Amino acid sequence: MTRPHSGTALSAVEDTAAPGCSPLRDCLHCSVRHLAVCSALSPDEVQALERVTVSQALPLGSTLARAGEPRQHVYTITAGALRLVRTLADGRRQISGFVLPGDFLGLSGSDHHRYDIEAIADSRVCRVALPQMKDLRSRFPHLERKLLQRACQELDAAQDAAMALGRLQPAEKVADFLLRLAAREALLGEPGLRVTLPMGRGDIADHLGLTMETVSRTFTKLRQQGLIALPHLNTVEILDEAGLQKLSADESY
Questions:
Q1: In the structure, what pLDDT confidence band is assigned to residue 17 with cuts at 50, 70 and 90?
Q2: Closest CA to 78 of 51, 107, 99
Q3: How far apart are CA 188 and CA 103, in angstroms?
Q4: Contact partners, residue 151, CB within 8 Å, separation at least 6
Q5: CA quadruple 180, 181, 184, 189: dihedral positive or negative?
Q6: Given this model, what pLDDT does residue 192 score?
Q7: In this predicted model, which residue has the larger pLDDT, 191 or 211?
Q8: What distances in angstroms separate CA 242 from CA 49, 131, 136, 186, 193, one per listed residue?
Q9: How does it assemble (predicted)?
Q10: pTM of the entire structure?
Q11: Is 20 left (phi over 0), alpha (psi -120 to 50) or beta?
Q12: Are 101 and 32 in contact (CB under 8 A)?
């Protein structure tokens, strides 16, 4: 879902005025299609999706949407990484989650964005206007079922995150975080024991409810225990997967 072409669909042509945007072609060859909700569509149905989808580039540091803005589109991220940020009344920042290739943004009962959506790496998303997605959902019931399945998965993830924030110790939180990223990389066909961190230590801290200093010390502790290696600042090699699983106290791995 990432190759631009000079399409003819009215909605796509209108959207090309926005910087970094282009209509789509060849969704069937998208490298993350097997992870995305559009995997529910047949090749013929994918053509209907292509006609209303725009590929939008998001450079590092750019903002896709601000909290409180009206929701006008849904998104599938095809490259890079985004963060969902909410600023608290006292100025503190809470990162609700990270959006990675194959993830879908737009499962919400609110008419407005609840978070700032920011690019933490050079990224790209596929964008569909809400009325057009509503039409696709009504035409293709299996797409609706896929979206329901994704909503259930996100609810499970939110419950797991709430448990981690409330009950786990710092080392357990970081171990759990690394294992979940490793599982995602395995789905993308990458070696599951080498984890790329598009987010910085501060982002991880604001996501896990820790300080940046605690996150840094915890990485060092895990390295000293022989559970991980840190060949680069943004790369983690898992040396003892069973040890991390035991530390995370999560039976789902």
A1: very low
A2: 99
A3: 12
A4: 107
A5: negative
A6: 63
A7: 211
A8: 42, 46, 43, 16, 11
A9: Homodimer.
A10: 0.81
A11: left
A12: yes
State how far the Cα of 116 lies from the Cα of 94, in Å rounded to an integer. 11
pLDDT (tens digit, 9 = 90+) per residue, 110-151? 899 999 999 999 999 999 999 999 998 888 888 888 888 878
16-20, 82-86, 205-209: segment of lowest average pLDDT: 16-20
Per-residue 3-state assignment (H helix, E strand, C coil) for the chain: CCEECCCCCHHHHHHCCCCCEEEEECHHHCCCHHHCHHHHCCHHHHHHHHCCEEEEEECCCCEEECCCCECCEEEEEEECCEEEEEECCCCCEEEEEEECCCCEECCCCCCECCCEEEECCCEEEEEEEHHHHHHHHHHCHHHHHHHHHHHHHHHHHHHHHHHHHHHCCHHHHHHHHHHHHHHHHHHCCCCCCEEECCCCHHHHHHHHCCCHHHHHHHHHHHHHCCCEEEEECCEEEECCHHHHHHHHCCCCC
Token readout for 9 is 């669909």
What is the distance between the alpha carbons of residues 30 and 100, in angstroms, rounded to a whole number? 15
**Residue 189 dihedral angles phi and psi, to the nearest 5°:** 90, 10
> Can you say how many angstroms the Cα of residue 1 is from the centroid of all Cα atoms in its chain?
16
> In the predicted model, is pLDDT for residue 166 greater than 80?
no
User: Tokens 């060849």 sit at which residue?
Assistant: 26
Q: What are phi and psi of 110, to 5 degrees?
A: -95, 150
